[in-house]
Automatic annotation (TrEMBL):
It holds the Pfam family RBFA. Signal peptide: none annotated. This is Ribosome-binding factor A. It is found in: Cytoplasm. One of its GO terms (molecular function) is ribosomal small subunit binding. InterPro entries: KH_dom-like_a/b (IPR015946), RbfA (IPR000238), RbfA_dom_sf (IPR023799), Ribosome-bd_factorA_CS (IPR020053). GO terms for cellular component: cytosol. The lineage of its organism: Bacteria, Pseudomonadati, Pseudomonadota, Alphaproteobacteria, Rhodobacterales. Monomer. Binds 30S ribosomal subunits, but not 50S ribosomal subunits or 70S ribosomes. Keywords: Cytoplasm, Ribosome biogenesis. Belongs to the RbfA family. GO terms for biological process: maturation of SSU-rRNA. One of several proteins that assist in the late maturation steps of the functional core of the 30S ribosomal subunit. Associates with free 30S ribosomal subunits (but not with 30S subunits that are part of 70S ribosomes or polysomes). Required for efficient processing of 16S rRNA. May interact with the 5'-terminal helix region of 16S rRNA. Gene3D superfamilies: 3.30.300.20.
Length: 141
């Protein structure tokens, strides 16, 4: 799995973040409009959550997830198979000298959020949270 930087963090320059967002928007348009000529891609709805661009602008990793999380591996295979056509469309839209190499990875944001919710719902964690919220009383004699 590709390492993921958080948008707006110290690891991303304004330019890499801007280009990543432009790629994300164009990828979303391509996939939602069915502009890529592949029946596997046109048959599914794919969300592009984030695009992380390397500091040298050579590689862009798109974090994607099919609607409902079903057929994720099929979606990745189809995207990887069509990366040349996708890169061509993205390059035309970006208008920069060199279009980054496109890589695709599954977006695990929702899985991580679910795991966090489960952790906070655990009775032991709730007990610790509530214990921290209980005001301490000073006993004076």
């Amino acid at each position: 799995m590709a390492k993921r930087s958080h948008s707006g963090g110290p690891s991303g320059s304004h330019r890499t973040l801007r280009i990543g967002e432009a790629i994300r928007r164009r990828l979303s348009e391509l996939l939602s409009r069915g502009e890529i000529h592949d029946p596997d891609l046109t048959a599914m709805s794919i969300t592009v959550g984030e695009v992380s661009v390397s500091a040298d602008l050579r590689v862009a990793t798109a974090f994607v997830l099919p609607l409902g999380g079903k057929d994720a591996e099929t979606a990745l295979l189809a995207l990887r198979k069509n990366r040349g056509e996708i890169r061509h469309h993205v390059g035309k839209a970006l208008g920069i000298k060199h279009t980054p190499e496109l890589r695709f990875a599954l977006d695990d944001t929702f899985d991580r959020m679910d795991a966090t919710r489960r952790m906070f719902a655990d009775e032991r964690v709730q007990r610790d949270i509530n214990k921290d919220d209980t005001p301490e009383t000073d006993e004076e004699e």
